[in-house]
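Record format v2
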Amino acid sequence: MGQFLFSFFACFAALCAAGVVVCKNVVNAAMCLLLCLLGVAALFIRLDAFLLAFLLLLVYAGAVVALFLFIIMLLDTRGEQAPQARRGLTIVPRVVAVALIGAGLASLALRGRLAAPAAADVPAVGASLKLYAYLLFTTYLLPVEIIGFLLLTAMLGVIVLSKREGEHSGYGN
Amino acid sequence: MLPETLNSYVILSAVLFGLGFLGVLLRRNTLVIYMCLELMLVASTLALVAFSRFNGTMEGNIFVFFILTVAAAEVAVGLAIVVALFRRTQTVRVDRLDALKH
Amino acid sequence: MAPSHLAFLVLAVPAASAGFIALFLRRRGGPASALSVLAAVAVAAGAGWLALHGPRFEASREWLRLAGLTVSFGFNFDDLAALMLAIVGLVGLCVHVFSLGYMRDDEARARYFGGLSIFMFSMIGVVLADNLFMMFIFWELVGFSSWLLINHWYERPAAAEAAKKAFIVNRVGDFGFLLGIILCYHLRGTVNLSDLAAQASSGTAPYSTAIPLLLFCGAIGKSAQLPLQVWLPDAMEGPSPVSALIHAATMVAAGIYMLCRIEVLMVNPALTVIMWVGTATALYAALCAIGQRDIKKVLAYSTLSQLGYMVAAFGMGTYFQPQADGSYHTASGVSAAMFHLTTHACFKALLFLGAGSVIYGCHHEQDIFRMGGLAGRMKLTFATFTIGVAAIIGFPFLAGFFSKDAILALAFASNRAVFAVLALTAILTAFYMVRLWKIVFFGATRSEAAARAHEGGGVLTGPLVVLAALSLVAGWRRLYPAAFAGILANVPEAEGRAHGIVLGVSLAVLLIGAGASWAFYAASGTDELERRAPGLFRGLAALQQCFDRFYAWYVAKVQQRAAMALNFLDVIGLSGLVVRGTAGLAGLAGLGLRALHVGRINAYVYWFLAGVAVLWLFAAGIL
């Protein structure tokens, strides 16, 4: 059963990822990303990292992809969907790129064999919530604080970046 | 049926990563490129969790926390930049954004 | 003070004077001329003391050392150098003083005196040099100062052309000289004159005809022998004192001096060539002098002729033949050449300075057919010039008489053909010198300028008197200081019956030449020869010009074409392909690299992928 689930969600995630790359419509691509995240979250659950799975769905699928969709709707890109002359890479670099990546994957598959015990033999430490909290607030306290500052900086940056030029700031007039 | 070993998780993660990279390479819409970047990040989180599970440690999981946070912050700032660019140049196509060329 | 230090001072003082003038006194003619004359006085005093009282010495210091080759800077002060140094110092001083008066109206006086100082420095360097490299360096410097001084009135295209011609023709000779030096170094391992002498006397020297002949090329250039004599008549474009100093007394004599220096390298075949070159030059120049109108050109050809005498004397006298006392050769060539060089320096400088005085008096008129009647107007110049003419034609008991006699005696004993040619040349010498003397000084004045001629003052006539006195006594070898006895000990003298023949011949040529000229030429405004024998006159003119014509043809047709071909190769090949090609390659590389900066993120990511692939290949161990 577990193996079937793994195979199913693995293929699902891979297909949706391909969809992100391939879809012409931006909104479709965003939807495919969402589904891909779903698949990866399911895989997280298979790996007994329940908290992380939910966090993935909450933060990534819920916030990030939603933000993407907002921005896609905000920026009116319909005018550019008309077919235009391809000024990107020509066919040769595309083929070469695909070939390179494929070669990298094949090399990984063939030569990067890892010796690891089966999942059943190793205790699933990631399942307990308490351990996350304990580690985050003792061993990894410093990175947590720094992450806090990072978020603050990101917020400030977003506010500054999104000001319109020449605009009076709000209430004073 | 794919065997559920560490290897297969790592290979899957690599596949997702490769697809994301291809997307960055081949797509011209900035937003799609950004989404493929996120895809790469997700692939790396998958690998981390797999390693953490199969080795019985917590470090990988904890690191995923931080990756998630950073990704969120990065997306916010990046999209703000895209919006600002759009306002200035009225385009999100990457091949039009070549003001650094000369 | 050690003699080597004094010698160094004698060498350095004119150089310092020239440097100071060049740096600070460019526009101040007065101080520059005073400084240069003071330097000349110092040089004359130092040279005199060294020559007469100083010991003979050698001093040397290593200057450059390249792998296996050592160039040293040193002095070889033997009797020969002492005599030459004394001549250079004395004549130099006379010319410097004369120039004070002659150039007093010239605006570029400072440059002129600077050039004179450079010349003194270079010439003393040639005299004192103890090895051929050093001599070559100063040789070139002498050529440069000659160019500088001929070019003094450079606004005149004729002067600029003449200076260029002098330098280039000298260069041709110097090319042979340099080849000779290299060959000497290659075959003998040294260019130091003392070492070469030691090798010769110990009999370990390898036999080589090429070395002396190549070195003689330098003398051909510098002393204006056939076929490189074309520059000397043109060099008369320079001021008269310059002609006196450089082109009569000292620089052109440097070639003779060099020949005497390398006497130890001589071999018989080379000496035969030298002898005939000198003889031919003497005859040729005498023939050319007959038809000249310009007073300085006549004197220039006469200088050429006398130089030919000196070279021929060297060639004959140094001939290696077993002597009665078992020694292998006599040094009479050196003695005869140096003796004639000394007397020639005195009377030729006198003649040139006298011509300068005449030119100055006639307000820079140089055509002898526009002078005349100056005997009464410029008495002192006339008197001294007469002494000079008498000396050069071999008037008994004057300077030239003894030295020419010595050479004729040498010729009589060595080679009768050369003797006949030299005797004929002596007739011609008397002929054209008396012609010059008569037309310039006698008869009615033939131009406005001559009518207003006057003496130039004490500064101009003083040196004339000094040189005239020297011309009177320079022939009496007994009067020479003992310091020079070594060089002049072997002056050839005919014995017995030969003595009578030679004496008779010399007196005969004098009378024939002088008498014929006096009778033939009237002191009139036209050339008698041209009037009465125009064909002969034209023939002589053609003889004079044939060398120039040949060189002009050669340069225009042969050399110019070769130069254009090389220029083409240079422009297309070197400039085009090599220089611009490599620059173009660098440019192309730059363009190519610049093409990567497309500004498109896709392309950048693509290159990123390529880099990752390379890293992957490294990590996988494939690369």
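Chain C has a mean pLDDT of 86.
Strands of chain C lie at 57-66, 69-77.
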